[in-house]
Amino acid sequence: MSEAGPDGEAKPSEEAKSPASAKESAKASTSKPAQAPRRGLLRRSRRAQRWAFAIVLLTLGAGAYWCFQTYQRVIGYPARAGVGSAEVVRFEVPRGASFPEVMRRLIEAGVLPEDEALWFKVFVLHKGAAGKITAGEHHVRGDMTPEELLGELIRRQPSREVRVTIPEGRHTLEVAGILAAAGLGEQEAFAAAMRDPKLLESLGVDAPSLEGYLFPDTYKFKVGTSPEDVLRRLVRHHQQVYGDLRRRHRGAAAALEKEFGWGDHEILTFASLIEKETAARHERPRIASVFFNRLRFRSFQPKRLETDPTIIYGCTVPPEKSKACEQFEGRIRRIHLRDPDNPYNTYTHEGLPPGPITNPGRAALEAVLAPEKTRYLFFVAKMDGTGMHKFSKTRAEHEAAVDTYIRGK
Question: Do the Cβ atoms of 90 and 121 come closer than 8 Å?
Protein backbone atom coordinates (compact mmCIF):
# COMPACT_ATOMS: atom_id res chain seq x y z
CA MET A 1 0.00 0.00 0.00
CA SER A 2 0.90 3.61 -0.56
CA GLU A 3 0.10 6.75 1.26
CA ALA A 4 -1.02 9.98 -0.45
CA GLY A 5 1.20 12.97 -0.16
CA PRO A 6 0.14 16.50 0.21
CA ASP A 7 0.17 17.01 -3.50
CA GLY A 8 -2.01 13.95 -3.96
CA GLU A 9 0.75 11.69 -5.17
CA ALA A 10 1.12 8.38 -3.61
CA LYS A 11 4.33 7.63 -1.40
CA PRO A 12 5.83 4.22 -1.45
CA SER A 13 5.60 2.27 1.75
CA GLU A 14 8.63 1.04 3.80
CA GLU A 15 8.35 -2.32 2.14
CA ALA A 16 8.42 -0.68 -1.27
CA LYS A 17 11.72 1.17 -0.71
CA SER A 18 14.35 0.99 -3.40
CA PRO A 19 16.98 -1.76 -3.46
CA ALA A 20 19.69 0.83 -2.71
CA SER A 21 17.94 1.89 0.45
CA ALA A 22 17.68 -1.74 1.44
CA LYS A 23 21.43 -2.23 1.00
CA GLU A 24 22.18 0.84 3.10
CA SER A 25 19.92 -0.43 5.80
CA ALA A 26 21.64 -3.79 5.72
CA LYS A 27 25.05 -2.14 5.92
CA ALA A 28 24.00 -0.04 8.86
CA SER A 29 22.62 -3.04 10.65
CA THR A 30 25.81 -5.03 10.15
CA SER A 31 28.22 -2.17 11.26
CA LYS A 32 26.80 -1.59 14.73
CA PRO A 33 27.84 -4.91 16.29
CA ALA A 34 31.61 -4.41 15.20
CA GLN A 35 32.07 -1.32 17.41
CA ALA A 36 31.71 -3.22 20.70
CA PRO A 37 35.05 -5.19 20.54
CA ARG A 38 36.87 -2.00 19.55
CA ARG A 39 35.66 -0.18 22.62
CA GLY A 40 36.79 -3.07 24.83
CA LEU A 41 40.22 -3.05 23.28
CA LEU A 42 40.50 0.67 23.92
CA ARG A 43 39.43 0.22 27.51
CA ARG A 44 42.09 -2.50 28.05
CA SER A 45 44.73 -0.30 26.37
CA ARG A 46 43.89 2.60 28.64
CA ARG A 47 44.16 0.38 31.72
CA ALA A 48 47.60 -0.88 30.58
CA GLN A 49 48.72 2.69 30.02
CA ARG A 50 47.52 3.68 33.46
CA TRP A 51 49.41 0.72 35.00
CA ALA A 52 52.53 1.53 33.04
CA PHE A 53 52.27 5.15 34.07
CA ALA A 54 51.78 4.10 37.67
CA ILE A 55 54.83 1.80 37.48
CA VAL A 56 56.90 4.61 35.96
CA LEU A 57 55.77 6.95 38.71
CA LEU A 58 56.58 4.36 41.37
CA THR A 59 60.00 3.71 39.79
CA LEU A 60 60.76 7.39 39.58
CA GLY A 61 59.57 7.84 43.11
CA ALA A 62 61.70 4.96 44.36
CA GLY A 63 64.69 6.26 42.42
CA ALA A 64 64.15 9.74 43.78
CA TYR A 65 63.84 8.34 47.30
CA TRP A 66 67.02 6.30 46.85
CA CYS A 67 68.86 9.33 45.48
CA PHE A 68 67.59 11.41 48.38
CA GLN A 69 68.65 8.78 50.90
CA THR A 70 72.04 8.38 49.23
CA TYR A 71 72.50 12.14 49.17
CA GLN A 72 71.56 12.34 52.84
CA ARG A 73 74.04 9.55 53.59
CA VAL A 74 76.80 11.23 51.63
CA ILE A 75 76.11 14.57 53.29
CA GLY A 76 75.92 13.02 56.72
CA TYR A 77 78.78 10.50 56.31
CA PRO A 78 81.66 12.73 57.45
CA ALA A 79 79.92 13.43 60.78
CA ARG A 80 78.56 9.92 61.36
CA ALA A 81 80.13 8.12 64.30
CA GLY A 82 81.90 4.86 63.60
CA VAL A 83 80.50 1.55 64.78
CA GLY A 84 83.74 0.33 66.33
CA SER A 85 85.11 0.38 69.84
CA ALA A 86 85.76 3.55 71.84
CA GLU A 87 89.11 2.12 72.95
CA VAL A 88 92.10 4.18 71.85
CA VAL A 89 94.40 2.35 69.43
CA ARG A 90 98.02 3.34 68.77
CA PHE A 91 98.26 3.35 64.99
CA GLU A 92 101.61 3.66 63.23
CA VAL A 93 101.85 5.07 59.70
CA PRO A 94 105.18 3.96 58.19
CA ARG A 95 107.27 6.54 56.42
CA GLY A 96 106.45 6.49 52.71
CA ALA A 97 103.25 4.43 53.13
CA SER A 98 100.65 4.93 50.37
CA PHE A 99 97.02 5.83 51.08
CA PRO A 100 95.75 2.32 50.12
CA GLU A 101 98.34 0.86 52.50
CA VAL A 102 97.11 3.13 55.31
CA MET A 103 93.51 2.06 54.65
CA ARG A 104 94.50 -1.60 54.74
CA ARG A 105 96.19 -1.08 58.08
CA LEU A 106 93.14 0.75 59.43
CA ILE A 107 90.92 -2.19 58.47
CA GLU A 108 93.33 -4.68 60.05
CA ALA A 109 93.42 -2.60 63.23
CA GLY A 110 89.62 -2.71 63.46
CA VAL A 111 89.31 1.05 63.17
CA LEU A 112 87.71 1.16 59.71
CA PRO A 113 85.00 -1.43 58.80
CA GLU A 114 85.73 -3.11 55.49
CA ASP A 115 82.30 -2.22 54.09
CA GLU A 116 82.99 1.45 54.88
CA ALA A 117 86.34 1.48 53.11
CA LEU A 118 84.95 2.75 49.79
CA TRP A 119 83.02 5.54 51.53
CA PHE A 120 86.07 6.62 53.47
CA LYS A 121 88.24 6.50 50.34
CA VAL A 122 85.81 8.71 48.40
CA PHE A 123 85.58 11.10 51.36
CA VAL A 124 89.38 11.44 51.66
CA LEU A 125 89.88 11.83 47.91
CA HIS A 126 87.13 14.45 47.79
CA LYS A 127 88.97 16.36 50.51
CA GLY A 128 92.21 16.04 48.56
CA ALA A 129 93.89 14.71 51.71
CA ALA A 130 95.28 11.37 50.51
CA GLY A 131 98.77 12.83 50.23
CA LYS A 132 98.58 14.73 53.53
CA ILE A 133 98.63 11.73 55.87
CA THR A 134 101.64 12.07 58.15
CA ALA A 135 104.03 9.28 59.05
CA GLY A 136 104.41 8.43 62.70
CA GLU A 137 102.26 7.40 65.64
CA HIS A 138 98.56 8.27 65.71
CA HIS A 139 95.88 7.61 68.34
CA VAL A 140 92.59 6.48 66.79
CA ARG A 141 89.28 4.83 67.85
CA GLY A 142 86.70 2.74 66.09
CA ASP A 143 83.88 5.13 67.04
CA MET A 144 85.52 8.15 65.43
CA THR A 145 83.65 10.00 62.73
CA PRO A 146 85.38 10.03 59.32
CA GLU A 147 86.17 13.71 59.88
CA GLU A 148 87.82 12.94 63.22
CA LEU A 149 89.71 9.97 61.82
CA LEU A 150 91.04 11.94 58.86
CA GLY A 151 91.92 14.84 61.14
CA GLU A 152 94.04 12.54 63.27
CA LEU A 153 95.72 10.93 60.27
CA ILE A 154 96.79 14.28 58.83
CA ARG A 155 97.77 15.72 62.20
CA ARG A 156 101.24 17.19 62.12
CA GLN A 157 103.58 14.97 64.07
CA PRO A 158 105.66 16.48 66.85
CA SER A 159 109.25 16.93 65.79
CA ARG A 160 111.14 14.11 67.50
CA GLU A 161 114.80 14.86 67.18
CA VAL A 162 117.90 13.18 68.50
CA ARG A 163 120.88 15.25 69.52
CA VAL A 164 124.20 13.47 69.03
CA THR A 165 127.79 14.64 69.41
CA ILE A 166 130.64 13.10 67.42
CA PRO A 167 133.88 13.97 69.28
CA GLU A 168 137.08 14.68 67.41
CA GLY A 169 139.44 11.75 66.96
CA ARG A 170 136.88 8.92 66.63
CA HIS A 171 137.23 6.37 63.83
CA THR A 172 134.34 4.95 61.82
CA LEU A 173 133.51 2.03 64.12
CA GLU A 174 133.38 4.36 67.10
CA VAL A 175 131.18 6.80 65.18
CA ALA A 176 128.85 3.94 64.21
CA GLY A 177 128.57 3.00 67.90
CA ILE A 178 127.81 6.60 68.92
CA LEU A 179 125.07 6.95 66.30
CA ALA A 180 123.56 3.60 67.27
CA ALA A 181 123.60 4.51 70.98
CA ALA A 182 121.66 7.68 70.09
CA GLY A 183 118.87 5.51 68.68
CA LEU A 184 119.40 6.34 65.04
CA GLY A 185 119.89 2.76 63.86
CA GLU A 186 121.90 -0.41 64.27
CA GLN A 187 125.68 -0.15 64.59
CA GLU A 188 126.12 -2.84 61.92
CA ALA A 189 123.92 -0.87 59.51
CA PHE A 190 126.05 2.25 59.96
CA ALA A 191 129.30 0.31 59.62
CA ALA A 192 128.06 -1.32 56.41
CA ALA A 193 126.84 1.99 54.97
CA MET A 194 130.25 3.55 55.64
CA ARG A 195 131.74 1.05 53.18
CA ASP A 196 128.90 1.03 50.65
CA PRO A 197 130.45 1.74 47.20
CA LYS A 198 127.25 3.37 45.91
CA LEU A 199 127.06 5.76 48.85
CA LEU A 200 130.76 6.56 48.55
CA GLU A 201 130.37 7.31 44.85
CA SER A 202 127.30 9.48 45.39
CA LEU A 203 129.26 11.55 47.93
CA GLY A 204 132.31 11.86 45.71
CA VAL A 205 134.55 9.97 48.16
CA ASP A 206 137.26 8.10 46.27
CA ALA A 207 138.22 5.77 49.13
CA PRO A 208 137.23 2.33 50.49
CA SER A 209 135.30 3.88 53.39
CA LEU A 210 134.10 7.16 54.86
CA GLU A 211 136.97 7.20 57.34
CA GLY A 212 138.12 10.79 57.78
CA TYR A 213 135.05 12.27 56.06
CA LEU A 214 132.64 12.14 59.03
CA PHE A 215 133.05 15.60 60.49
CA PRO A 216 133.07 15.70 64.31
CA ASP A 217 130.39 18.06 65.63
CA THR A 218 127.01 18.14 67.37
CA TYR A 219 124.04 17.26 65.17
CA LYS A 220 120.29 16.96 65.41
CA PHE A 221 118.52 14.22 63.47
CA LYS A 222 114.85 13.35 63.20
CA VAL A 223 113.94 9.94 64.55
CA GLY A 224 113.71 7.52 61.66
CA THR A 225 116.40 9.16 59.54
CA SER A 226 118.12 6.42 57.53
CA PRO A 227 121.79 5.57 58.22
CA GLU A 228 122.67 6.72 54.71
CA ASP A 229 121.08 10.14 55.24
CA VAL A 230 122.79 10.52 58.62
CA LEU A 231 126.17 9.79 57.06
CA ARG A 232 125.45 12.12 54.14
CA ARG A 233 124.91 14.93 56.62
CA LEU A 234 128.26 14.28 58.34
CA VAL A 235 130.14 14.05 55.05
CA ARG A 236 128.51 17.20 53.62
CA HIS A 237 129.54 19.08 56.75
CA HIS A 238 133.12 17.91 56.34
CA GLN A 239 133.11 18.99 52.70
CA GLN A 240 131.85 22.45 53.66
CA VAL A 241 134.44 22.97 56.39
CA TYR A 242 137.32 21.56 54.37
CA GLY A 243 136.27 23.51 51.28
CA ASP A 244 136.33 26.74 53.29
CA LEU A 245 139.78 25.96 54.72
CA ARG A 246 141.20 25.05 51.32
CA ARG A 247 139.97 28.31 49.81
CA ARG A 248 141.60 30.26 52.65
CA HIS A 249 144.86 28.34 52.29
CA ARG A 250 144.84 27.62 48.57
CA GLY A 251 148.52 28.52 48.30
CA ALA A 252 149.51 25.97 50.96
CA ALA A 253 147.38 23.28 49.33
CA ALA A 254 149.01 23.96 45.96
CA ALA A 255 152.47 23.80 47.57
CA LEU A 256 151.72 20.39 49.14
CA GLU A 257 150.57 19.09 45.78
CA LYS A 258 153.74 20.35 44.13
CA GLU A 259 156.10 19.07 46.86
CA PHE A 260 154.53 15.73 47.79
CA GLY A 261 151.88 15.18 45.13
CA TRP A 262 149.18 15.40 47.79
CA GLY A 263 145.55 15.88 47.01
CA ASP A 264 142.60 16.28 49.36
CA HIS A 265 142.68 12.65 50.51
CA GLU A 266 146.36 12.87 51.53
CA ILE A 267 145.79 16.14 53.36
CA LEU A 268 142.91 14.50 55.20
CA THR A 269 145.08 11.48 56.06
CA PHE A 270 147.84 13.73 57.42
CA ALA A 271 145.28 15.67 59.50
CA SER A 272 144.02 12.42 61.02
CA LEU A 273 147.52 11.65 62.35
CA ILE A 274 147.71 15.08 63.98
CA GLU A 275 144.23 14.60 65.46
CA LYS A 276 145.23 11.33 67.13
CA GLU A 277 148.52 12.60 68.51
CA THR A 278 147.21 15.46 70.63
CA ALA A 279 144.00 16.67 72.20
CA ALA A 280 145.52 20.11 72.80
CA ARG A 281 144.28 22.39 70.03
CA HIS A 282 147.22 24.79 70.20
CA GLU A 283 149.71 21.91 69.84
CA ARG A 284 148.38 20.68 66.53
CA PRO A 285 150.32 23.09 64.26
CA ARG A 286 153.51 22.07 66.10
CA ILE A 287 152.74 18.35 65.76
CA ALA A 288 152.19 19.01 62.05
CA SER A 289 155.61 20.65 61.81
CA VAL A 290 157.26 17.55 63.35
CA PHE A 291 155.72 15.23 60.77
CA PHE A 292 156.55 17.60 57.93
CA ASN A 293 160.17 17.84 59.13
CA ARG A 294 160.47 14.06 59.12
CA LEU A 295 159.37 14.01 55.49
CA ARG A 296 161.49 17.01 54.44
CA PHE A 297 164.78 16.86 56.35
CA ARG A 298 167.45 14.94 54.52
CA SER A 299 169.05 14.06 57.85
CA PHE A 300 165.95 12.14 58.90
CA GLN A 301 166.16 8.73 57.27
CA PRO A 302 164.18 6.65 56.50
CA LYS A 303 161.11 8.83 56.01
CA ARG A 304 158.98 7.02 58.57
CA LEU A 305 156.48 9.00 60.62
CA GLU A 306 156.59 6.41 63.45
CA THR A 307 153.29 7.19 65.14
CA ASP A 308 151.65 4.59 67.38
CA PRO A 309 147.98 5.38 66.52
CA THR A 310 148.53 4.10 62.97
CA ILE A 311 149.46 0.63 64.28
CA ILE A 312 146.44 0.54 66.57
CA TYR A 313 144.13 1.55 63.74
CA GLY A 314 145.50 -1.10 61.39
CA CYS A 315 144.98 -3.76 64.05
CA THR A 316 141.39 -2.79 64.97
CA VAL A 317 139.39 -1.16 62.19
CA PRO A 318 140.14 -2.61 58.71
CA PRO A 319 138.19 -5.80 57.87
CA GLU A 320 141.39 -7.58 56.83
CA LYS A 321 144.19 -7.67 59.38
CA SER A 322 147.74 -9.03 59.47
CA LYS A 323 148.65 -12.10 61.52
CA ALA A 324 150.42 -9.91 64.06
CA CYS A 325 147.31 -7.72 64.36
CA GLU A 326 145.18 -10.79 65.04
CA GLN A 327 147.19 -11.08 68.27
CA PHE A 328 146.58 -7.44 69.20
CA GLU A 329 144.92 -7.12 72.61
CA GLY A 330 144.93 -3.36 73.03
CA ARG A 331 148.63 -2.86 73.75
CA ILE A 332 151.38 -2.39 71.17
CA ARG A 333 154.14 -4.99 71.44
CA ARG A 334 157.37 -5.51 69.58
CA ILE A 335 155.63 -7.87 67.14
CA HIS A 336 153.33 -5.01 66.12
CA LEU A 337 156.13 -2.45 65.78
CA ARG A 338 158.01 -4.76 63.40
CA ASP A 339 154.92 -5.93 61.47
CA PRO A 340 155.43 -5.24 57.72
CA ASP A 341 152.04 -6.74 56.80
CA ASN A 342 150.10 -4.00 58.54
CA PRO A 343 149.84 -1.34 55.79
CA TYR A 344 149.06 1.28 58.44
CA ASN A 345 152.27 0.61 60.38
CA THR A 346 154.29 3.83 60.04
CA TYR A 347 157.24 2.15 61.81
CA THR A 348 157.79 -0.18 58.85
CA HIS A 349 156.35 1.93 55.98
CA GLU A 350 157.56 5.34 54.88
CA GLY A 351 155.29 8.27 54.26
CA LEU A 352 151.57 8.37 54.88
CA PRO A 353 149.39 5.35 55.72
CA PRO A 354 146.86 4.24 53.04
CA GLY A 355 144.16 6.52 54.39
CA PRO A 356 142.86 8.44 57.41
CA ILE A 357 142.95 6.73 60.80
CA THR A 358 140.25 8.90 62.36
CA ASN A 359 137.87 11.76 61.59
CA PRO A 360 139.75 15.03 62.16
CA GLY A 361 138.18 18.32 63.19
CA ARG A 362 138.74 21.80 61.87
CA ALA A 363 141.86 22.53 63.96
CA ALA A 364 143.69 19.42 62.75
CA LEU A 365 142.75 20.13 59.13
CA GLU A 366 143.97 23.71 59.38
CA ALA A 367 147.21 22.57 61.06
CA VAL A 368 148.15 20.74 57.86
CA LEU A 369 147.62 23.87 55.78
CA ALA A 370 149.13 26.28 58.34
CA PRO A 371 151.75 24.40 60.43
CA GLU A 372 154.32 25.99 62.70
CA LYS A 373 157.83 26.45 61.36
CA THR A 374 160.15 24.55 63.71
CA ARG A 375 163.17 22.25 63.69
CA TYR A 376 161.52 19.65 65.92
CA LEU A 377 161.71 16.00 64.91
CA PHE A 378 160.43 14.26 68.05
CA PHE A 379 157.86 14.62 70.79
CA VAL A 380 156.78 12.63 73.83
CA ALA A 381 153.72 12.94 76.07
CA LYS A 382 154.48 14.46 79.45
CA MET A 383 152.09 12.05 81.19
CA ASP A 384 151.11 14.72 83.72
CA GLY A 385 147.41 14.81 82.89
CA THR A 386 147.67 17.93 80.73
CA GLY A 387 147.89 16.11 77.40
CA MET A 388 150.88 18.25 76.53
CA HIS A 389 154.09 17.05 74.85
CA LYS A 390 157.81 17.66 75.14
CA PHE A 391 159.32 18.48 71.74
CA SER A 392 162.93 17.75 70.78
CA LYS A 393 165.20 18.53 67.83
CA THR A 394 167.58 15.58 68.17
CA ARG A 395 167.24 11.94 69.07
CA ALA A 396 169.47 12.42 72.11
CA GLU A 397 167.15 15.15 73.44
CA HIS A 398 164.21 12.89 72.74
CA GLU A 399 165.70 9.94 74.64
CA ALA A 400 166.34 12.17 77.60
CA ALA A 401 162.72 13.34 77.51
CA VAL A 402 161.53 9.74 77.34
CA ASP A 403 163.61 8.93 80.43
CA THR A 404 162.04 11.84 82.24
CA TYR A 405 158.40 11.50 81.29
CA ILE A 406 158.00 7.80 80.50
CA ARG A 407 160.66 5.81 82.30
CA GLY A 408 160.70 8.08 85.30
CA LYS A 409 164.50 8.24 85.57
Answer: no
